[in-house]
Amino acid sequence: MEELVNDRLLQDRNTADSNQTSTSTSPSTSTASLDMVKRKLPQKSLNVSGPVQPYHPRLKNFWYPVAFSTDLKDDTMIPIDCFEEPWVVFRGKDGKPGCVRNTCAHRACPLHLGSVNEGRIQCPYHGWEYSTDGKCEKMPSTRLLNVKIKSLPCLEQEGMIWIWPGSDPPTATLPSLQPPPGFQIHAEIVMELPVEHGLLLDNLLDLAHAPFTHTSTFAKGWSVPSLVKFLTPASGLQGYWDPYPIDMEFRPPCMVLSTIGISKPGKLEGQSTKQCATHLHQLHVCLPSSRGKTRLLYRMSLDFAPVLQHIPFMQYLWRYFAEKVLNEDLRLVVGQQDRMLMGANVWNCPVSYDKLGVRYRLWRDAVERGDKRLPFTEST
Asked: Cβ contacts of residue 195 below 8 Å, gap of 6+?
């Protein structure tokens, strides 16, 4: 990457600290320098505190991955919550996925308690059946009425099921979340977590906490660097960590992609991912289920050891490792959430290694304001 720079917010803070240290002992000079320092100190630009506010409708106008294709069989369904609304995903007669409100139009019974019959989801209460567009096509024991429940645009691409929960017309294309060329997918895991999705994204976009938090898993034995930096283009939502050989990207609206250079599992190697012989690629999708819950989709890929794909029960071992790492984070993020609900600002004092998390928050604020041009992206 060329022209790697720090955020202006953090540059100003560092400049102010430097100026304050080098001020003269002369009273007049000290006063002038102090005035300059005050002018340079950044205004607090992030305030994430208090009860989580209702999600802004503009945040819904994106494609959101909600499930892995392998989890959605022809005769199964997947109930999800998205932006505090209940939905259920299933496949129609043509095999294509659909997403309808998880509430029967008759007596409000949750549809996921029923079954899928010939591409229709059947309510377990009185047998009403709905197609993927939400139309009721069967009403046993009574005359068929013209009834329809709400459905969402739903597509399948590259092994994932996507929905568009917003009121704006959906965009024609979906972002690609495939691992880089040469990688093979080894694990796809879904977890329901008791934290707001923004707090989880904050955590995933931060690597500086690893040698303090993940002391029993992947960062066991890591030394604490004297300086941790995240280097990124001035207008980007991606970059790389220094001194760690890890590339990372926030992909709107709720995805984090990272590539980690390793010499063997649990060990870092080299100063950049390009210097490493083997790599692990991760995808984290943080679906906003509600103001206190996140549906996490995790995909792990490797560019080595393809034989691991053929070892029986290996997926259970991958899940064990993933949950162990995540639990190290969760106890802290849940604690943050508790403090936030009591009024604490979880972004009270950002420093240089918080750059990517800060940019995510500024991007999200811009979306909710309805800015025509979103920061750090090419969107207009």
From this structure: 292, 293, 294, 330, 333, 334, 337
Distance in angstroms (rounded) separating the CA atoms of residues 129 and 200: 37
3-state secondary structure of 195: coil
| Res 72 pLDDT > 60 | yes
Q: Mean pLDDT, to the nearest integer, of 7-31?
A: 40
Express each pLDDT in 212-221 by its tens digit.
999 999 888 8
HEC-encoded secondary structure of the chain = CCCEECCHHHHHHHHHHHHHHCCCCCHHHHHHHHHHHHHHCCCCCCCCCCCCCCCCHHHHCCCEEEEEHHHCCCCCEEEEEECCEEEEEEECCCCCEEEEECCCCCCCCCHHHCEEECCEEECCCCCCEECCCCEEEECCCCCCCCCECCEECEEEECCEEEECCCCCCCCCCCCCCCCCCCCEEEEEEEEEECCCHHHHHHHHCCCCCHHHHCCCCCCCCCCCCCCCEEEEECCCCEEEEECCCEEEEEECCCEEEEEEEEEECCEECCCCHHHCCEEEEEEEEEEEEECCEEEEEEEEEECCCHHHHHCCCHHHHHHHHHHHHHHHHHHHHHHHHHHHHCCCCCCCCCCHHHHHHHHHHHHHHHHHHCCCCCCCCCCC
The tokens for 246 are: 């890890």
Span 324-352, average pLDDT? 96
What are the distances in angstroms from CA 332 to CA 94, 203, 293, 337?
Answer: 45, 9, 15, 9
pTM of the model: 0.86
